[in-house]
Specification:
The protein is mainly β and 416 residues long. Helices cover 1% and strands 54% of the residues. It is globular.
Length: 416
Amino acid sequence: MVFRDASLYCVSLVLICLSVAASAADQDAGTTEKLIATIEPSWIAESLVVSADGTAYACVADLGGKQRAVINGTSGPLYDELGRDGVVLSADGARAGYFASKEGKWLAVIDSKESESYDTAGGLTFSENGARVAYVASKDGKWFVVVDGQVGKAYDGIVAGLAFSPDGARLAHGAKVGDKQIVVVDGEEGRQHDGIPGFKFSPDSRTFVYGAVEGGEQFLVINGEEGKHYSAVGGPEFSADGAKMAFVAGSNGQFFIVADGVEGKRYGGVGGPFYSPDGSRLAHAVLEGGQWYVLDNGAEGKRYEHVVAVFAFSPNGKKLAYVVGKFGNESVVMNGEEGKVYDQIDPRTLLFSPDSEMLAYTAVLGGDQFVVINGRECDPYDRILNAGRVIFDSADRLHYLAVDGTDVYRVEVPLK
């Protein structure tokens, strides 16, 4: 969608000061709020993004049928409209980019510099270190990827998105050639397939794997080598060091995990898999007899109606947490012990402290959203930003970004 109807969201952001001192808020003991900005009429709240450390923010403003980006309090030029993704910040908040429509054409505006005009443009992606940037654009019916300002080869379409390797040195994307699809890594084309569902780099950036479809069968291609064909494949997931890999495969209506080339037991459904940080444990969810449960290195957990197959291991690998239940009745299970039931828990927010002693996540109950730390509920907010994620600054302190009424805060919580 394009950020067009400001009346639906009715709010906007005005910079106060990114370095203001902590307020004397009456919160949980020791918890402090650092005011990032105050919301006022005319800006689109849904478009607000804040860097993880709270030092940078961006928003889209709608002014009388024209739109502009506001980045750290500085208003950009007016355009006919901005792209549906709004403003994209690099992970450290040092860089920003967005797409803008002008006289029927689209521009990429990166670090306040406009690109040439395109028929369409989207998919702005920064590398993890923020040093590189890429996006997709089209002209005259042909599609291409622009990397660090350099226009790549034109194709009939760009498919499966864009991905930088974790070290930022490599870039992959899918492309359409006639009725076939290929993967392109650093400009080098792979062989043609009927479809390319997706691709991924290993954490150490040394392994590149993609899924391929041919003749109704699916398989993985790992560093150019084609794997065994199945009726379906999903994943894959790597261990933190990139040495191990597991994925979901299907055959004859049954599903199973393939870990380092070894096929596991067949089930009615499989979710996951996830490795512990040291790669010694592999967890995944399975469906058997109409119920779901988690297998942790083969050890069966309690059976539930539903298990959300997103797992969190503690840094020391001794604790495993995941979410069970359905919307309106969800709880966190850690090492087999069930926590309090909430309306909603986002499993992507499950995070252990660096010393593995604390588990934090974001929950919703009765319309309030709040962070839960080892079962203790922090004060509620209207919204927890950055998809509800918390950041452990150390084993003794964490922070998150939250909206309370018209104010946007960095909330810091002492843990000990």
